[in-house]
C-alpha cells in the first residue's frame, strides 16, 4: 500500500532529515517543500499498521520533527 507523510519541522534541519529518510527501504520519495509543510515522504509499506509503526519509530523521533500528518492512498 502507498502512504504519504507530511512533516513540519521546528528547526532548520531539512537536509539532515532528508538524508536520513531517503535511505530507509520503505521510502520511495522524499521532498523538501515550501509552505505550511516542510517535507513530504512517500512510502510503500505492507499495511496501515506497518505505516503507523514506521511513522512512530522512524520519523517522529527524529530531532527537529514537530508534527506529522499521515495519509493512506485509497487506490
Top-tier CATH class: Alpha Beta
Rg, Cα atoms, Å: 11 Å
Tally of alpha and pi helices: 2
Uncertain ranges: none
Order of helices and strands: EHEEHE
Counting structural domains, the number is 1
Rounded average pLDDT:
95
Number of strands: 4
General description of the model:
The protein is built from two helices and four strands. It has 75 residues and is of the alpha+beta class. The protein has one domain (2-72): Alpha-Beta Plaits (2-Layer Sandwich). It has a four-stranded antiparallel β-sheet, with helices on one face. The radius of gyration is 11 Å and the shape is globular. The protein starts with a strand and ends with a strand.
Please give the structural blueprint.
Elements: E1 2-9, H1 14-21, E2 27-32, E3 39-44, H2 48-59, E4 65-72
Antiparallel strand pairs: 1-3, 1-4, 2-3
Offer a few descriptive terms:
single chain; 75 residues; alpha+beta; Alpha-Beta Plaits; four-stranded antiparallel beta sheet; 4 strands; globular
Q: In a few lines, what is going on in this structure?
A:
With 75 residues, the chain is an alpha+beta fold. It has helices at residues 14-21, 48-59; strands at 2-9, 27-32, 39-44, 65-72.
